[in-house]
Amino acid sequence: MSSKPFSHPQDVKPPCKHPRVQIISRDEDAEFVECLECREVFESSELKDMSIEERAERETQE
Hints:
The chain is α+β, with helices and mostly antiparallel strands. The protein is built from 1 helix and 3 strands; from the N terminus they run E-E-E-H.
């Protein structure tokens, strides 16, 4: 049995923090935004949740 060495992809980028977004759609219950850096589309409430989680992670690391 031969084994292959584990290889890491060379194009690994850190996750996007979505620093610049634009609103692309509004609904009665939701607002959707697109990140101008990575082009990901998500609900604006998710962006708020991401920043809260990031802040909590920083506080636990200190």
